[in-house]
Design goal:
This protein is mainly alpha-helical. The protein is built from 20 helices and no strands. It has a single domain, classed as MFS general substrate transporter like domains (Growth Hormone, Chain: A, Up-down Bundle), CATH 1.20.1250. The longest helix is centred in the last third of the chain and has 31 residues. 53% of the residues are buried.
Length: 407
């Protein structure tokens, strides 16, 4: 099927996935961190203390997502969105009203669980289950919603922050979620029901089996891939979480530094679409073996950068890295472990990635308080990606024959 025909025949489902991704933005680090300076000033927090709050709240949300992710195996995305999206909007309103430090922890927890966690889970699981032969392409197109949000939200809200009180902007964030809700609800009216489409939609994984979540968690493959799962969210989240700190340390104007994000997003879009085609043609494993290379290079370049030109080069590499990530991991789980229990498996892996996004800001914030600025930490981060990449290469090389037997 040609690309135009694929888009025309599946526009409804692809649009729903893209809008779910887009609407997750108020719960993403790149959005919350825009208000880092205001939040730290309001609640008298240091970099380390704010990082600890963020890490704790995100860790709890990851634990909740581990179990809640399996709900997508049993309930329609439409039904779950009816709860998740209004919940995310209400949490944004709560952020604008909250004056309590304890309330801040709870609100960040809900932003992370509902935004980064469940909204992503709904979109990615739906694409992985609804599409088999063009799964990679479907995931790539769906992830465009997140890419556009990542490009637009920081620029728009950073500019508005110069003119409006930061709490008022959280009302606007709530409205952006509610604005997409009716359209998503309408698009999902014709949603497939997973339980009644197993015979048609399911594809098996290694050894011609449909792996359960517990079987995946007991597999050495999963544990060897753990550093790969944790690394991008941990250090990629830190890149955005510490964006104010990076700009100050490097001596770059924040608005000019954030203006590089759309460049990263544009590259991520191109790479994501290309990656989907490569996955469909060559398999997710072959692409996965090169997944962490751009992460490694990006942090080395940003560490060395003395001007915004150097930062631009690093953001181009980050665009390649995030473009691969948006499609690759979900496709890998579906291809290697099957789609029958993809909701539970994706929920488990996403919870670990959310946990990674908690560890990164906590660790980097603590080190900043100890006198190690974030740019100086980037060489150690690059070394982490080198080791994690070797493990990925070994796993794919050793598992390839089991996948071939499943063909």
């Amino acid at each position: 099927m040609r690309l135009f025909d694929f888009l025309r025949n599946n526009l409804r489902f692809l649009s729903a996935g893209a809008l779910l991704h887009f609407s997750s933005c108020p719960g993403q680090t790149f959005f919350i961190s825009i208000f880092a300076a205001e939040i730290m000033a309001e609640f008298a927090l240091t970099d380390g203390e704010w990082g600890a709050v963020y890490a704790f709240a995100t860790t709890v949300s990851a634990l909740a997502l581990f179990w809640a992710g399996a709900l997508t195996d049993w309930f329609r995305v439409r039904s779950l969105a009816l709860i998740v999206m209004p919940g995310l909007a209400l949490t944004c309103v709560a952020m604008s009203l909250n004056r309590s430090s304890v309330g801040l922890i709870l609100i960040v927890l809900l932003l992370r669980f509902l935004g980064q966690g469940m909204m992503f889970q709904l979109a990615a699981t739906a694409m992985a289950r609804w599409f088999v032969g063009r799964r990679g392409l479907a995931l790539s197109i769906s992830a465009l919603g997140f890419a556009f949000g990542q490009a637009l939200y920081p620029m728009i809200f950073a500019a508005l922050l110069d003119h409006l009180y930061w709490r008022s902007l959280w009302y606007i964030a709530a409205l952006t979620v509610l604005a997409t809700f009716p359209l998503i609800f309408w698009l999902l009216a014709a949603e497939r029901t997973p339980a009644s489409h197993f015979e048609v939609e399911d594809s098996s994984g290694m050894d011609r089996r449909h792996w359960t979540r517990n079987e995946v968690l007991r597999s050495p493959i999963f544990w060897m891939l753990l550093p790969m799962l944790i690394g991008p969210p941990a250090w990629g989240t830190s890149l955005f979480f510490q964006q104010v700190h990076i700009a100050e340390t490097k001596g770059w104007p924040l608005v000019q530094y954030l203006s590089l994000v759309p460049v990263m997003t544009a590259i991520a879009v191109v790479v994501s679409l290309s990656c989907g085609g490569f996955i469909d043609k060559f398999g997710s494993g072959r692409v996965m073996q090169f997944f962490l290379v751009p992460w490694l290079l990006a942090f080395i370049v940003l560490h060395q950068a003395e001007s915004l030109v150097g930062a631009l080069v690093s953001f181009c590499l980050f665009g390649v890295a995030t473009g691969l990530q948006s499609t690759l991991i979900t496709a890998f789980w579906a291809e290697y472990f099957g789609t029958r229990h993809i909701g539970a498996i994706k929920g488990a892996s996403t919870s670990i990635m959310v946990l990674g996004s908690a560890l990164g800001p906590g660790i980097t914030g603590l080190l900043i308080d100890q006198g190690y600025d974030f740019p100086s930490q980037m060489i150690a981060i690059a070394a982490y990606f080198f080791v994690a990449g070797l493990l990925v290469w070994i796993v794919v090389a050793r598992s390839k024959h089991r996948l071939l037997r499943s063909a």
